[in-house]
Specification:
This protein is mainly alpha-helical. It has one domain. It is built from 4 helices and no strands. The chain has helices at residues 9-28, 33-40, 48-52, 54-80. The longest helix is centred in the last third of the chain and has 27 residues, at 54-80.
Length: 95
């Protein structure tokens, strides 16, 4: 996932919140009772074996870990960004 550069700090904050929430959900939900009852149990009969498959659930776990990694890297980039540093002034010409 591409790191947001410069840009709006509010968008960066929303991205971090989204990535953390989606990452946590995709990491833990496929392995819980909620997944079997709400997702697999209410899905069409043809898709149940696919949704209950450990391979598909592991795929979702991997997506969740990627989201968490993206959020962590964005937080780290945000943390390392210098704050309150003014850009260097242009040299003045003297006549």
């Amino acid at each position: 996932m591409a790191r947001l550069r410069g840009g709006n700090q509010l968008l960066r904050a929303f991205f971090v919140i989204y990535a953390l929430e989606a990452g946590a959900f995709l990491t833990f939900a496929p392995w819980g009772r909620y997944w079997m009852v709400r997702v697999v149990g209410r899905s069409p009969e043809r898709t149940r074996p696919f949704l209950a498959s450990p391979y598909f659930r592991s795929f979702l776990l991997g997506l969740g870990l990627l989201h968490l990694w993206a959020a962590a890297s964005e937080i780290e980039a945000w943390r390392r960004k210098p704050r309150g540093v003014a850009p260097p002034a242009a040299p003045r010409e003297t006549a």
